[in-house]
């Protein structure tokens, strides 16, 4: 796709890849489409200023950059190695940890937005659910083997730490992937709350992470007291988790 704007405020969009769905299949349309949208003048509107046109040009350049990087097949892909900067060896870790070979992408923030209702609806009553958080420098997540409770009308429900773990798959220190289990299996882990409670928190794993609808995440400051590494309980893993920041993408995966 190529997007241009001329000095008269006329936007030209040239699309080389047009997709349509037919009987659950996605095909590429070989026809090249050119769409011209004219900004119609009105007596009540001021003329388009040159700095406004430049601002739109900057925005359209961002669209062009995105179009060059993201192929339509990527947007519709459910393959983690296509969607994330991971290798076959990383995927093998996830398969071993989940004890399953196959997976289904239930939710993607770039495709589905980021809302508490959307997140909780996508995983309710699902088992073997994994959350993957991608940031600029790392990929980490958590796993729940037991079925995820439905969202209550008031208050909250939760899963305890039985059959639950958190993990670090990729980090800026080039540390090998590792996973952590809770020191207390009866502790609360995943919190599912009513829509009108903590409305900005879209995903909360107590003792591990809180993700807000602004894409901001906060790692619990007491994570080292809550979790320990499977094979080495004295492993100091704290530095491998960014303490807070903004995610690029949230994936919710069902393994089977």
Automatic annotation (TrEMBL):
InterPro entries: TLDc_dom. This is TLDc domain-containing protein. It comes from the Eukaryota. It holds the Pfam family TLD. The lineage of its organism: Eukaryota, Amoebozoa, Evosea, Archamoebae, Mastigamoebida. Residues 91-236 form the TLDc domain.
């Amino acid at each position: 796709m190529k997007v241009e704007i001329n000095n008269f405020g006329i936007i030209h969009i040239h699309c080389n890849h047009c997709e349509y769905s037919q009987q659950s299949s996605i095909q590429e349309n070989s026809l090249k489409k050119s769409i011209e949208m004219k900004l119609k003048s009105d007596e009540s509107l001021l003329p388009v200023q040159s700095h406004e046109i430049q601002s739109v040009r900057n925005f359209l350049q961002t669209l062009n950059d995105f179009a060059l990087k993201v192929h339509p097949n990527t947007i519709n892909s459910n393959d983690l190695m296509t969607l994330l900067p991971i290798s076959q060896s990383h995927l093998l870790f996830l398969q071993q940890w989940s004890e399953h070979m196959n997976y289904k992408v239930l939710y993607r923030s770039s495709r589905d937005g980021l809302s508490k209702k959307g997140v909780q609806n996508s995983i309710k009553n699902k088992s073997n659910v994994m959350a993957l958080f991608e940031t600029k420098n790392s990929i980490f997540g958590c796993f729940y083997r037991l079925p995820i409770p439905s969202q209550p009308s008031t208050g909250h429900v939760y899963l305890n730490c039985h059959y639950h773990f958190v993990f670090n798959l990729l980090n800026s220190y080039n540390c090998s992937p590792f996973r952590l289990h809770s020191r207390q299996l009866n502790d609360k882990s995943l919190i599912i709350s009513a829509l009108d409670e903590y409305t900005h928190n879209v995903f909360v794993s107590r003792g591990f992470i809180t993700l807000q609808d602004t894409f901001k995440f906060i790692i619990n400051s007491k994570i080292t007291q809550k979790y320990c590494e499977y094979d080495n309980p004295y492993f100091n893993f704290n530095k491998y988790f960014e303490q807070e920041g903004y995610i690029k993408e949230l994936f919710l995966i069902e393994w089977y």
